Structures are given as C-alpha cells and as structure tokens.
Amino acid sequence: MGDDRVGVDAIFDDTTGIVDAGTDGPTSARPGTSAGGLTTTAGVSGRMSRQLRRDTAPEIALRRELHRRGLRFRVDHPLPGMARRRADVLFPRRRIAVFVDGCFWHACPEHGTAPVNNSAWWAQKLATNVRRDRDTDAHLAAIGWTVLRFWEHDEVGSSADAVEQAVIRMSTTWLRDEH
Ligand SMILES: [Zn+2]
Fold first, then answer.
1. Top-ranked range on mean pLDDT: pick from 30-39, 51-60, 106-115
2. Which residue, of 52, 106, 109, 118, has the greatest Cβ tally within 10 A?
3. Bias category Low complexity: which stretches (predicted)?
C-alpha cells in the first residue's frame, strides 16, 4: 500500500466535537465492555467492577491509532435509534459504528470461557450479551450503517486498517450522496 494521503485530514473529519475524553470520565454501566483477557473464576469479581469503567485498554489503543492516522470520530456515542446502546467509535456522517468486544463479555471463540461458579447464571448472561450484539448489528445494517467489530485480542494495526478502509469507502458514498 502506498502512502498517498493527500487531503486525508480534511476528508476524514467526521465530528464537530472532541475526539477522546480520556479515561477519567464518569463511569456508567455498559454491558459488554471489555475487561481484559483473563477468564479464571478468581477474576470474575475484578471483571465485574471493571465492567463499570467506560474505557478499556483495547478501545483506547484503537482510538489512539485511528487518531494518529488522521481519523476523527465520536467516542462512546449512542447509536441511532438505540439510545441505550453505544458504539466505542462512531463516524456519524459515514454511518460507521466500531465496536471493540471484550473476549470474556462477548464470548470470544478463542478466549471466552464460562466461569465455574454460578455457571448457569453466567451462561445466560453471556448469551444475552451475544444476542444483544447481533441485534445491534441487525438494527444498524437495516438502517444502512456499516458495523465493524473487533475482538480485544485483535492486533490494533489491522483493526485500524479495516476502519480506515471503511471510512475511505464510505467517504466516497457520503460525498456522492450529500455533496
Ligand atoms: Zn479473544
């Protein structure tokens, strides 16, 4: 891939606001938030408390990389028509929603494991998360949005590549449709 990035900054500015509020914002319960890759039963309570945190390391790493590449976006933003659900990174004009799914909370096929204690409760909880993810995907697709989901174990560079390509693709659409 070449390095022809003429006009990238101007084209990619998809917000009017602040890009990254950092990690010290107010906490709010956000089901499905990633909380690290360890899945031992001893880690469950730790994960539960960390679930309340708004930002997680994999999300921050992706945001940082996207920002470094000149992309501008909204962070932790409500989804259209689903005020109580949020995308980790959102390009509103280009209608792209990006999620960084935690391996535990979203039942990653490689790292997702079921806790031994209260296993029935956990199985239901995690299944509900996955069902909600698919429901969110379907809703967004139905209204013409592009959904990009990454696992927290994904390499940040390749995730950022995929986002960048989607933004370029949708920029063409956006410019054609609205300008
Ligand atoms: Zn994983």
1. 106-115
2. 106
3. 32-46
CA torsion through residues 35, 150, 131, 19, sign: positive
What is the arithmetic mean of pLDDT over 113-127? 92
Identify the three-state secondary structure at position 115. Answer: coil
Q: How far is the CA of 134 from the centre of ligand 1 (A)?
A: 17
Q: Is residue 13 part of a domain?
A: no
Predicted local confidence at residue 16, as pLDDT: 44
Q: Which domain holds residue 118?
A: 30-178
Average pLDDT rounded to a whole number, residues 57-67: 96
Going from the Cα of 140 to the center of ligand 1, the distance in angstroms, rounded, reads 24
Query: Does 42 map to a domain?
Result: yes
Q: How far is the CA of 108 from the centre of ligand 1 (A)?
A: 5
pTM as predicted: 0.70
> Residue 102 Cα, ligand 1 centroid: separation in angstroms?
7
Q: How close is the Cα of 105 to the center of ligand 1, in Å?
A: 10
Distance (Å) from CA 103 to ligand 1 centroid: 4
Take residue 133 and report the two structure tokens written for it: 């993810």
